[in-house]
Amino acid sequence: xxxxxxxxxxxxxxxxxxxxxxxxxxxxxxxxxxxxxxxxxxxxxxxxxxxxxxxxxxxxxxxxxxxxxxxxxxxxxxxxxxxxxxxxxxxxxxxxxxxxxxxxxxxxxxxxxxxxxxxxxxxxxxxxxxxxxxxxxxxxxxxxxxxxxxxxxxxxxxxxxxxxxxxxxxxxxxxxxxxxxxxxxxxxxxxxxxxxxxxxxxxxxxxxxxxxxxxxxxxxxxxxxxxxxxxxxxxxxxxxxxxxxxxxxxxxxxxxxxxxxxxxxxxxxxxxxxxxxxxxxxxxxxxxxxxxxxxxxxxxxxxxxxxxxxxxxxxxxxxxxxxxxxxxxxxxxxxxxxxxxxxxxxxxxxxxxxxxxxxxxxxxxxxxxxxx
Length: 372
Description:
Layout: H1 2-31, H2 35-45, H3 48-56, H4 66-77, H5 83-92, H6 99-111, H7 118-124, H8 131-144, H9 150-156, H10 169-182, H11 188-197, H12 201-214, H13 217-228, H14 234-241, H15 253-260, H16 265-278, H17 284-291, H18 296-302, H19 306-309, H20 314-326, H21 330-340, H22 343-359
Helix pairs in contact: 1-2, 2-3, 2-4, 6-8, 7-8, 8-10, 9-10, 10-12, 11-12, 11-13, 12-13, 12-14, 13-14, 15-16, 16-18, 17-20, 20-21, 21-22
């Protein structure tokens, strides 16, 4: 124990000593106003002491030239570790940065996956005039948004009927999608208001999916009411009903089952996609129906739901594998077996798939994806 401790002390001391010349050189360069050169010296050194000295420069960089400030930010944002610490220091100095640097910092929140800063980002959506920052904020929020962001997202949801400069369809869709995926019922009244006052099929579909994901009785009832009022238009009906496939309230899965048996392939795939995203143990039998569907794209979409039905639905999935093999769909069977960790069935499916491929090797139109 003493020997190991001694080795650790010697190693640490040696590393500190090795870093000292570079640190001293950088300090001298900073003192001489050679800020860019000092930053390069510290980057090349890469030691914890080098990072400490770089972070100290955040208090000094207000009086630097623009390219030097950019160099400091690039050095910190490309540091291979200590992301939490660096982000905290950068946000502490937020007001000292210019707009381009704000964009870079917002991007890092998404790249470094730092959800603690998501509410800060959501608050930035209140100013749509800085379009580059606005877009980057939405992009990062897609990766790190939390329920703490919901109030700001509700306020930021642009009104597509006004001259709101935030309204671009993609911006609107991202915010609506975030509210749906966060699943917070506080968003329901605002989403229903959009549903009721906007006459736009594309908007209806996005809002319907968000309401379905949130899945409260109020949300589902709003979708059903909108659907009832638009039965005459097949295009509108298909857009609105998409949200019902995400709802998991008792009885709501009947919509999904009915859609899987419809004669419209896009409806089938939409239902299977929603089921793949939301499936739980109670949906094992319904998921099996989708996984044994005649349409390959439906089976492919449904595969994402297999982990959601485990472990309670494992036996149902094993029977589904056996049925898929009987239907000569070894690829589907193999992917289900892989998802549930059934090695024996996976080997059986792979053998059947290899046999099938050899049998059709001379057919130029053969597709060995989900076709079999």
